[in-house]
Inverse folding.
């Protein structure tokens, strides 16, 4: 399956989704005005991956910041991972960023998927 | 020529860090954010306070962007955005035109947000993110709730009638400079 690689900009995150290397990562800042447009290819990729997923999938979320439009799309992404066997979310936050940790905890309450919290 | 000195004097007296007046786009949002970040860095502000200010700024600026796209006449799209600092808080203020017919819905939403405590806001956020469809303007109706949560303060706002069709919507939020 194709690798999805999006380089980050000042208002969009970097995304790497690579089945063969087992790398699934979103990092950086996410504040696009059109969050739905930005995350569309990401959602399509996960949809295609669902039917041919690896035995384990660890999605590394290393966001420094995201706007509310992105938060809706992040929930959509997490919801898609719910249907993938062996999927887990590794939610990173800066050690002094309680808001980001809390945001991760709230997402974990909204989806049926294991979460692990790590500080960076 | 005196007006420029007066504006300058007011800015210094009111501790205004940054003002932008004009049309709002995502490009301008990014530029304003980066300027504000530099100013906060130069003040040596703590990173968690900086992040909260940044957060509230993004939601305010993108609210104006999305809202102004919907206004037909370019002159009505002009808005103002301001950050000021006081000893114990940052003050983020914005002002933009709003159609009179939209006032009731907006003020009901802001009143509801102001009536909720910390847990109430958290539950309201979760309810909205799960049930709200994305609007065609790309928002999920979460911006003001997020501002209230990040600032931990009541939202202040005012509508000033301009004519039969429009009013000027002023909005203010405060971020405490002393971390909890």
């Amino acid at each position: 399956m194709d690798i999805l690689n999006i380089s980050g900009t000042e208002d969009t995150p970097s995304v790497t989704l690579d089945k063969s290397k087992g790398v699934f990562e979103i990092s950086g800042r996410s504040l696009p005005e059109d969050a739905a447009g930005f995350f569309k290819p990401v959602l399509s990729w996960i949809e295609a991956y669902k039917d041919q997923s690896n035995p384990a999938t660890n999605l590394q979320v290393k966001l420094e910041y995201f706007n509310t439009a992105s938060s809706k799309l992040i929930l959509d992404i997490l919801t898609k991972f719910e249907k993938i066997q062996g999927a887990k979310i590794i939610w990173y936050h800066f050690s002094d960023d309680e808001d980001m940790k809390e945001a991760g905890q709230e997402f974990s309450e909204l989806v049926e998927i294991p979460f692990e919290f790590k500080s960076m | 020529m005196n007006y420029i000195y007066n504006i300058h004097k007011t800015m210094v007296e009111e501790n205004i860090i940054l003002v932008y007046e004009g049309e709002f786009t995502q490009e301008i949002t990014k530029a304003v954010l980066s300027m504000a970040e530099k100013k906060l860095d130069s003040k040596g502000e703590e990173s968690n306070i900086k992040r909260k200010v940044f957060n509230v700024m993004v939601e305010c600026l993108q609210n104006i962007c999305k809202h102004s796209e919907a206004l037909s006449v370019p002159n009505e799209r002009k808005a103002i955005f301001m950050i000021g600092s006081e000893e114990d808080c940052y003050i983020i203020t914005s002002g933009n035109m709003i159609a009179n017919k939209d006032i009731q819905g907006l003020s009901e939403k802001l009143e509801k947000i102001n009536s909720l405590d910390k847990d109430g806001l958290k539950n309201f956020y979760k309810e909205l993110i799960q049930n709200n469809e994305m609007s065609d303007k790309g928002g999920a109706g979460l911006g003001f709730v997020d501002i209230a949560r990040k600032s931990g303060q009541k939202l202040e706002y005012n509508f000033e009638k301009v004519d039969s069709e429009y009013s000027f919507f002023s909005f203010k939020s405060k971020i405490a400079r002393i971390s909890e």
